[in-house]
């Protein structure tokens, strides 16, 4: 398994509105396409105004196929139009498990 960690830096004061919009308009669409939401987090220390998503994929090819399907979704594109005004920066990292990781 690989984990994709997506970190979004949001405009100050918009974390709660972003989370509400994501929960109402984005979560179900994204979860249906990507399949394995490992976790969804908000930063409390360090760099603030960030949300972090962790998505699990069987392989890199699985991730590509699922991301492609998500990008073709009309509902997802509508969500992005609404959510885009909150986002300052987006970062994506693919994490590979160490041999002893409990998540394999």
TrEMBL record:
Checking Gene3D superfamilies in the record gives: 3.30.70.100
The segment(s) forming the NIPSNAP domain are 4-102
Q: State the source organism's domain of life.
A: Bacteria
What family does the entry list? Belongs to the NipSnap family.
Q: What is the protein's given name?
A: NIPSNAP family protein
């Amino acid at each position: 398994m690989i984990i994709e960690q997506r970190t979004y830096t949001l405009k100050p004061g918009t974390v709660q509105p972003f989370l509400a919009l994501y929960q109402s308009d984005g979560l179900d669409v994204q979860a249906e396409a990507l399949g394995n939401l490992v976790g969804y987090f908000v930063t409390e220390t360090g760099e603030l105004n960030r949300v972090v998503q962790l998505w699990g994929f069987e392989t890199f090819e699985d991730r590509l196929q699922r991301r492609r399907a998500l990008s073709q979704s009309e509902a997802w594109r509508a969500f992005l139009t609404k959510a885009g005004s909150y986002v300052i920066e987006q970062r994506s990292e693919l994490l590979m498990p160490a041999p002893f990781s409990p998540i394999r």
